[in-house]
Design brief:
The complex is a heterodimer of chains A (about 325) and B (about 290).
Chain A: H1 2-28, H2 34-42, H3 50-57, H4 63-75, H5 89-124, H6 129-143, H7 146-160, H8 176-210, H9 213-220, H10 225-262, H11 268-277, H12 281-309
Helix pairs in contact in A: 1-12, 5-6, 5-8, 5-10, 6-8, 7-8, 7-10, 8-10, 9-10, 10-11, 10-12, 11-12
Chain B: H1 14-24, H2 26-43, H3 45-48, H4 80-116, H5 118-133, H6 136-147, H7 151-178, H8 181-188, H9 193-229, H10 241-244, H11 258-285
The chains are: A mainly alpha (about 325), B mainly alpha (about 290).
Chain lengths: ~325, ~290
């Protein structure tokens, strides 16, 4: 197990390196110069020498040196300052990150509770009408864009019943119920679109497991079908499903961006969009980096859990 | 896997192939049909649309669907049906060009890394790992914020995004083909690398390429709609399905709910059809990937 953990940790390093290079490249590719932006935003154009600012920002140094300076700043928690609010980007990230994570976690819970029972059902009734309908439904959920579902949820209840989903954000620790009431609709929508893939995976794995010898043995012993499904089959089929959580992390965060915008959830997605429209590049790249690194970490944790659950993977 | 070998090889004529698909995979066949109708609407949008894409009529503002306006009119009296057709046109253009670009990038990157392997392959794969770590939409938003919105930009961005991600799939099947007898035979007969790649590797990864391209068209259309919905896609006044659901029209949806229906429905039907068609294609062309 120890060797597995070390190997997996070492494997992350090159990916993490490339992730940081992609984000750094995005910073360098920003149109116009950072210096131009600062001059325009901060009204310090008169009399200030460009070269002085460039030197202060370290832009006169060679590019690899700039990269190392940037990385060491990030490692010290310094993500730079927002061009608009003049607050540290790290501070804003610390505020918005937990909100997006809460939304993602709720969506994941919704997705799993919807997907796993349907996957089991579909596998047990393979090639019946019920299986067919369940599978068609999840294919449909893959095709329906979440922003359309969100729009429908905003428009139709209010036209028909004069009811609209709440859009007022309250922090969880101030008013847990109000917070959940606000998060629930976007979480359900996000969870539904995620459930499609999980359902298909659960179905495939379940079908595979049900064909195994030990299931036939259990049946031959005369065990009850429920016991076979829940005690013997489900345990083995859910292990690969765990890896899906890692694979879905990008979908979860990507989907959160759109739903946060529709339902005014002040998470990282909304922060990113606002920053893009305000051309607040330090914030954009800060969110960009955090999103990439969190997904990498989620995948690392998922892989380690997988190795823990399934001894075969460790080798 | 035993039934795989019993399957007849795919027919050469596309028409016969699709007739067979309708018989064996009805859902996929219907999906293909809807996909064809969507293509037709997109290509001939200028002829089919009863009104211009930005033709306003202030006498007919926010009218419910009628015989004159099949999908109603919006808040400045534009015919929604015509705008859906022009939206289809843009979706076809972006879908095909971006998915085409993505496929070309995937083939070049996937075949080369898969065939040659080695240290450079290792390095490129770690880059692809990092690239695929980012959510599509976040990557798109950041890149659009850097190079700006517009049809050409969107096509290039989406092409690169899905091209790099898709290279994994082509690489996988290239490695499988590389280990086949006929490739080794060609190599030992002294065929040039380019010859082997062109005549032995490429034809054999082609089924995967076709499936990849088809499913990418759907993904690209959905991604473009998402970007346009967020106001980062194609700038107005060009009608796109994504932007018809966002922006100024949003407040009028409470008066005219049909405004919220048509673009989303069009998007869902097209993407759903492409997905089931792609699944059927995969089952028929590439038995190895069945059920994935």
């Amino acid at each position: 197990m120890q060797a597995f953990i070390i190997r997996r940790l070492l494997a992350v390093i090159p990916t993490l390196l490339f992730t940081s290079v992609i984000v750094f490249a995005s910073i360098r590719l920003i149109p116009g110069d950072v210096v131009d932006l600062m001059l325009a935003q901060n009204d310090i154009s008169s009399g200030t020498d460009r070269a002085v600012i460039e030197a202060a920002l370290g832009l006169d140094k060679p590019i690899y040196e700039q990269y190392f300076v940037w990385v060491s700043n990030i490692l010290q928690g310094d993500f730079g300052y927002s061009l608009w609010q003049n607050t540290p980007v790290a501070e804003q990230l610390a505020l918005t990150l937990p909100i997006t994570f809460e939304l993602g976690l709720l969506a994941l819970i919704v997705a799993l509770t919807v997907a796993i029972p349907r996957g089991i059902y579909s596998a047990m009734k393979q090639d019946t009408l019920g299986d067919y309908l369940t599978r068609s439904f999840s294919l449909l959920m893959l095709a329906i864009p979440s922003f359309w579902l969100g729009t429908l949820v905003m428009v139709f209840p209010s036209v028909w019943w004069r009811w609209a989903p709440p859009l007022q954000y309250t922090p969880f620790f101030e008013d847990p119920l109000g917070n959940l009431a606000h998060m629930l609709v976007p979480a359900v929508l996000l969870g539904l679109s995620l459930s499609a893939v999980t359902m298909r995976m659960t179905r495939t794995m379940m079908l595979e497991v049900l064909r195994q010898d030990y299931i036939r043995t259990a049946r031959a012993k005369g065990l009850k079908e429920n016991l076979i499904i829940f005690r013997h089959a489900l345990r083995n089929c859910l292990i690969p499903v765990v890896t899906l959580i890692g694979l879905q992390a990008p979908l979860l965060i990507g989907g959160a961006v759109i739903l946060e915008q529709i339902f005014v959830v002040p998470g990282m997605g909304l922060m990113l969009l606002e920053a893009v429209f305000q051309r607040d590049y330090p914030v954009v790249t800060g969110v960009f980096l955090i999103v990439g690194v969190s997904i990498l970490l989620i995948n690392l944790v998922v892989d380690l859990t997988y190795g823990f659950l399934d001894p075969k993977v460790r080798h | 896997m035993s039934e795989v070998s019993l399957q007849a090889p795919p027919s050469n004529s596309p028409l016969a192939f699709h007739r067979k698909m309708l018989r064996h995979k009805p859902l996929g066949g219907i999906g293909g049909l809807v996909f064809a109708i969507f293509l037709f609407c997109g290509v001939f949008a200028d002829v089919l649309a009863p009104y211009g894409m930005n033709e306003t009529n202030m006498q007919k503002v926010l009218e419910a669907p009628s015989l004159d306006h099949w999908m109603g009119t919006d808040h400045i009296g534009r015919d929604v049906f015509s705008r859906i057709l022009y939206g289809a046109q843009l979706s076809v253009i972006i879908g095909f060009l971006a998915a085409g670009l993505a496929t070309v990038i995937s083939i070049i990157l996937g075949v080369l890394t898969g065939y040659f392997g080695g240290k450079i392959d290792m390095l490129i794969q770690r880059f692809v790992d990092a690239w695929m770590t980012f959510p599509d939409l976040v990557l798109l938003i950041v890149v659009v914020s850097i190079i700006g919105p517009g049809v050409t930009q969107i096509i290039i961005i989406l092409g690169c995004l899905y091209g790099i991600a898709g290279s994994r799939i082509i690489r996988g099947s290239t490695i499988a083909v590389r280990e086949n007898m006929y490739t080794h035979a060609a190599q030992s007969m002294g065929a040039r690398t380019l010859h082997v790649l062109w005549f032995h590797v490429l034809p054999n990864v082609m089924p995967v390429v076709i499936v990849l391209f088809t499913t990418r068209v759907g993904a690209v259309i959905l991604a473009e709609a998402g970007l346009s919905f967020l106001g980062l896609g194609i700038p107005p006044p060009v009608p796109t399905w994504g932007s018809m659901l966002s922006g100024g029209g949003r407040t009028y949806m409470y008066v005219g709910p049909w405004l919220a229906l048509a673009p989303g429905l069009a998007l869902t039907i097209v993407v759903y059809s492409i997905n089931v068609y792609g699944d059927a294609l995969r089952d028929m062309l590439d038995p190895r990937m069945r059920g994935r």
